[in-house]
UniProtKB/TrEMBL annotation:
InterPro entries: NAD(P)-bd_dom_sf, Sc_DH/Rdtase_CS, SDR_fam
Protein's recorded name: Uncharacterized protein
Residues annotated as signal peptide: none
Single annotated GO MF: oxidoreductase activity
The entry's keywords: NADP, Oxidoreductase
Family named by the database record: Belongs to the short-chain dehydrogenases/reductases (SDR) family.
Species in which this protein is naturally found: Fibroporia radiculosa
Superkingdom of source: Eukaryota
Amino acid sequence: MAQSNSPARIAFVTGAAQGLGESIALRLADDGLDVAINDIPSKVEQLKAVATQIEGKGRRALVLTGDVTREEDVRDNVVQVVGQLGGLDVMIANAGIGIHKSFLQTTTEEWDRIMAINLRGVMLCYRYAALQMIKQGRGGRIIGASSQAGKKGTTNLSAYCATKFAVRGLTQSLALELAEHNITVNAYAPGFILTSLAYHPNDAVNGLRPGGTIKQLFGLPLDSPEAQPEVISSMVSYLAKPESYFITGQTILVNGGTLFD
Ligand SMILES: NC(=O)c1ccc[n+]([C@@H]2O[C@H](COP(=O)([O-])OP(=O)(O)OC[C@H]3O[C@@H](n4cnc5c(N)ncnc54)[C@H](O)[C@@H]3O)[C@@H](O)[C@H]2O)c1
């Protein structure tokens, strides 16, 4: 639903071929934004399907492939968004991976990889979005993916937790630095959301419902709260709106009440 006669605001969502990124991209299109979507090159067909849905909502879509760990990819993606859609108003640094292993089982290579995607990737998205939004001089919304695991340590998730705690710190610091430019910086902290990140091949092997194995690895009861991606995209939708201007530096839990802060 477009909100006025003014030009559509423009969003860029990373990791948008599936899961939370896809849900956020579609919700922002419902909100009247034009949406650029990124994911790794092997997911280009999924990205095209998401773009078709965005266009079906009457918005413009732009498919971009790129690896968020590579500075040139993030910089070039932002250049494409600005060149082809006309600017950047909302950056969603969503791309991320999980590693479900104990601390002692996690190799240094696995540590470096998750740090590169979940933290360096978010940092690069924040940087190139901030540079563009400052240049435009019309404020903006920068939103990153943290997690409930960015607020409380979890078994078999130490490397992931470290990245998501770090996103929270980065989000707070950048919010302070960008306030003078009317750019807010926030993060979402989902609890257990049913995307591929929550699934495990052993779910079927052990006769568990999807998500059951990961819950066991985290020490959660099998019937602990879980939800679909829309609970996140609806909250992100609000954070992306102009009216959310008084919220900044926050990492907001959406978790069915499994942790209070
Ligand atoms: N699902 C949950 O319960 C949950 C909970 C807390 C936080 N999160 C966070 O939400 C975000 C989205 O997760 P999801 O559940 O949708 O997972 P998902 O695996 O379904 O989607 C993540 C997407 O990111 C993409 N991606 C991975 N590495 C990339 C890279 N280097 N460059 C570009 N894209 C890349 C993947 O290809 C994938 O399409 C992640 O940051 C995740 O940590 C998810």
